Amino acid sequence: MVPLVDAMRAIDPAVPVFDVQPLTARMGGVLLLSRYAATVLGGTGLLALGLVVLGLYGTVSLSVRLRLRELSLRMALGSSRAAIVRLVVRQALVPVAIGVVFGLVVALGATRVLAALLHGVSPHDPATLAAAALTLLATTAAAGACPAWRATRTNLMRSLQAG
What we know:
With about 160 residues, this protein is mainly alpha-helical. The chain contains eight helices and no strands.
């Protein structure tokens, strides 16, 4: 900054020069509110994703526990463990996939409202929308696979006798 101030004083020493800052420092204060809002919204989104994962895991876990006798019977009749896990994960993914499609439609409809909060990202950015959809589907698959895998490790005879 000193060379700039010296150059300005060399042109006209009577002009007062004060508070010289780069443009990035000046814009940092202007964009502070937007950055804060983005941080809060991002944190809220991560919290919501965590709640979704916990809710899905609990729902699928309860469903597997209630269907343990059926799943054990399928395994006793020759179904492989991988087939049982695929069955449970597929049944967990269907309603979430429907919700993702509905959510993408709503998100595309709400882009005009949220366009003011998006800096550096297009409201119709396909990569962002695809990343959000794939994140939800992947977390659903993981939340469904864990209880299903645990159910395939149970004692078949005890599960069939318990009902």
